[in-house]
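Example with several molecule types.
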Amino acid sequence: MIWSWWIALILFAAPGLWALVAIVVDIGNPGQMLGADAGETLVRHFGEWGLRMLLVTLALSSLRRRAGFTQAIRLRRLAGLTAFTYLSLHGLSYLWFLAGFEWLQIREDLVERAYITVGFAAWLILSVLAVTSTRGWQRRLRQRWQTLHALIYLAIPLGILHLLWLTKAGYAEALVYALVYAILMIERLLARRSRQTAS
Amino acid sequence: MRPRLPAAPRWYEISNEQWVLNRREFAKATGLGLLASALPSVSHASLQPDDEVTPEGIVTQYNNFYEFGMDKGDPAENAHKLTTEPWTVEVAGEAAKTGKFSIEDVLKGLTVEERIYRFRCVEAWSMVVPWQGISLRKVLEKFEPNGNAKFVEFTTLKRPTEMVGQRASFSGIDWPYVEGLRMDEAMHPLSIMVTGLFGKPLPKQNGAPWRLMVPWKYGFKSGKSIVRIRFMGKPPRTTWSLLAPNEYGFYANVNPKVAHPRWSQASERRLPSSLLSPNRRPTMPFNGYANEVAGLYSGMDLRRFF
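Resulting C-alpha cells for the full complex:
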C-alpha cells in the first residue's frame, strides 16, 4: 500500500528534518537548538537515530509475522536506508565538527580508540548493504543476497558496543537497545522453529 | 611600605563591562566593599589573549553533575530540589580540628577572591569561568592538618531523595562521588573552594554551596557540593579511577600528550562551539598553568602518573 510507505517516510525522516531545521536555526542564531556544543549534539543525534532505525528495520519483519502487518516488508528497505543515511551523517559530523578533518587525528582515533574502530566497521558493513539494496542487486545475487543482508545482525551489536564503549557512565540507553535487539532475535529464532516444525 | 595603588588590571580581570558591574554588586552584597578592590592576586598566571569569558547561560546550563542526571542540561533542570541550607561539613583524618562544622563557621573570616580560570573537561570541551572563591589552603589550614596528612579527600553529598541521578539504574557510579588531591596540590595558590559564579552565589547545578576548583586538572577532579574533607596518609580511592583505572588516573592533570582511551586530548572545543565556528584549539599542558604548577611534578613520569 502506497499510503503506508509515505507515512513511514515522513516518520523515518522526522529526526533528519529536525536536524535540518536545527542547523538552519543555529547558523543564524548559534546555540539556539543545538546547544553550547553544536557538533557534539549533531553527532549524538544522528548516531542515536541511526541505531534506532536499524532496530526499526529488524522490528518490521517481526511486525509482519506477529501483527499480520503484511506491508511491513516493503518498508524494510526504506528503514534500512534511513538508518544508513543517519549513520553516514553521524560519521560526517564527527569528521567535521569533532575531528576538524585532521586526518592524523582521525587515523589515531581509528587505530587506537576501539569504539571508533567498531563504529566504522559497522558503517562499512551497512554501506555494502545500502549499495546492494536495489532490486537489480537482489536479482544478481539471488540466494546470496539473503546471506549478505543477514550482516545487519552483526552491524547492530557492533553499534551497541560502540555506544557502550564510548559511554563514561550511565549505561541505561545502550542496555535498552541491547534488550530490544535481544527480543527481536529471540522472536526470529521462535519463528524459525515454528516454520521447521510446520514443514 | 606604602600600599600599591590598584592601577593595572590583574591577570584574572577581563575587560567585560557587564561582568565588572556584577563584580561590584557582588562586593557590595557580600559586604566586602572596598576590600574587594584590594584582593590578593596570583600575579604571574595569565589568561591567553583569546580567552573570552564563556556566557553565563552556558556555564550554568551545560554541566556534568551526574548526581542530577547524565545529560548536560539535566543538572540545571533537576538541581533546584537540593537543599543547601543548612550545610554541614565533616572534617576527618589527620588534623587537629576534626568533627562537624557548619559551612558558615568554616568560611568565617576568609576572603572571597575572584578568579577567572580556564576550565577543561576530560571530554575535550572547555570554558573560561569567572569564579568567586576562597583559597583552598586557607580553608584547609583552619582544620590544622598534621604532619601525616599527605593527601586530602573531598566527598560530594549523597542524598538520593534530592539527587535524581543517584536513584538511576545502571549509572555505573558508586555514590557518593569522591575525589582527592595531594596535599601540596591542595595547598597551591591556584586551588580554590568556589562559592560564587558571575558575581552571584554558586548555582546548585554548579555545585552549591561550595565546590572545588583546581584549574590545571580535568574538571572531574573538582568535586561539587562538598560535605566531607578527610586528611589522609595514603591516596584516597577516587570515583573515576575506581570505575576505570586505565582511563582516569589520580592526578588527571590536563596533558595534550597523554590521550584518554576515548578522547585524544590534543585539542579542545572552547564553548560555545557552533557549526560555523567550532572553536577548536590546541590544549595546553596543565591547561596553560604550567608556569605555576609544573614544579609540583618535577621528576615524575607524567605518562605513568596521568
